[in-house]
Amino acid sequence: MVQSMTGYGKAECICGQDKIIIEIRSVNGKGADISLKSQIIPREKEIEIRQMITKELSRGNIDLFATVESSPGNSSRSINSDLFNSYYDQIETLFDARGHKVDPSQIASAILKLPEIIDNNKREVDETIQAESWERIKETVNEAVKQLKMFRTEEGRKLEEEIRSRVDYILEHLKGAEVYESERVESVKERLKSKIEEFIPAGDNNRFEQEIIYYLEKLDITEEKVRLRQHCKYFLDTLSGEEYPGKKLGFIAQEMGREINTLGSKANHSQIQMLVVQMKDELEKIKEQTLNLV
Questions:
Q1: Which terminal residue of the chain has fewer beta carbons within 10 Å of its beta carbon, N or C?
Q2: In this predicted model, what pLDDT tens digit does every residue of 210-265 receive, in sequence order?
Q3: Whether residues 109 and 245 fall in one domain
Q4: Are 29 and 144 part of one and the same domain?
Q5: Are residues 34 and 111 in the same domain?
């Protein structure tokens, strides 16, 4: 199943009196760029965690956060009294300077809504994690990674549907271009005939046919159509057949672009040119979406 590089996972565990919360987020990236934004993971264990995450997630800019929240039985939420008093004094001074009186309960209610007034007892820890606690934390990291992979899989399913529909649009536009091929050939013949007659003596039909064949061969788009269809099939087969197809799909999309560009340069027909522009538009959207696939 195709996976997106965008995802989020969260898991929790209890270690002694504390609840440890692990959060992991990822966005698209060229490789596996892992940032451990926590001191809860000992330095000697960082390589182990990075290897574990890389093995499971393969690619992406990945951030891991870990916080510790004291359990309710250990301590409760508290008011930061110093900060509260500072805000209260400042507000009271401002109102007194303007000759206004305010209800203290109104000031208190407003201050309690300000950031950092309430201490939720969440914190980072830098003390050494004991062996039994570390194993529990590692299991929690694994669970968070698992949740992120589920998120990635769901996002990948949506991306795959969208990409497949756009490849189908390219094939439809290619089929539409074929409708104008006979008209295009006749148009090219007429233009060449009018030009050649200016320089070739009348009645020299052999020379005329030679020139027609030469230019029609140069403008023939049969090979481009065949290769574009092959590239589209290879793209869809790779999308459904490989676990991590993202980079490979990017290379195939480049080859699709080359064939579409050649079709445009050989078209010599306004309707085919319009269809080529639509194919390019669909391909650009495919490239953007492919960048977010693992």
A1: N
A2: 767 777 778 889 999 999 999 999 999 999 999 899 999 999 999 999 999 999 99
A3: no
A4: yes
A5: no
Whether the predicted pLDDT of 126 surpasses 50: no
Q: Count of domains in the chain? A: 3
DSSP lists the bridge partners of residue 68 as 20, 123
Dist. CA 155–CA 159, nearest whole Å:
6
User: Is the residue at 2 inside a domain?
Assistant: no
Are 279 and 231 in contact by the 8 Å Cβ rule? The answer is no
Tell me: do 12 and 143 sit in the same domain: yes
User: Is residue 19 classed as helix, strand or coil in its secondary structure?
Assistant: strand
Phi-psi region at 163: left, alpha or beta (left = phi > 0; alpha = psi -120 to 50): alpha
Q: Residue 35 to residues 66, 261, 293: CA-CA distances in angstroms?
A: 12, 41, 20
Alpha-helix residue ranges (DSSP H) falling in the chain: 43-57, 81-97, 104-111, 131-178, 181-196, 205-219, 222-241, 246-266, 270-290
Looking at the fold, whether 126 and 46 belong to one and the same domain comes out as yes
Range of the domain at 225: 155-290
Same domain membership, residue 67 and residue 127: yes
- Predicted confidence at residue 121, as pLDDT, reads 53
Task: Compute CA distances 33 → 27, 60, 155, whole Å.
Answer: 10, 6, 20
**Between these two residues, 22 and 1, which has the higher pLDDT value?**
22
pLDDT at 38: 85
pLDDT(279) > 80 = yes
Would you say residue 240 lies in a domain?
yes
234 Cβ partners below 8 Å, 6+ apart? 252
Q: Which residues contact 147 (CB under 8 A, 6 or more apart)?
A: 8, 9, 10, 11
Query: How many angstroms separate the CA atoms of 161 and 57, rounded?
Result: 21
Residue 246 lies in a domain: yes
* DSSP run (H or E) holding 69: strand 60-70
Q: Which of 88-102, 131-145, 152-166 has the lowest mean pLDDT?
A: 88-102
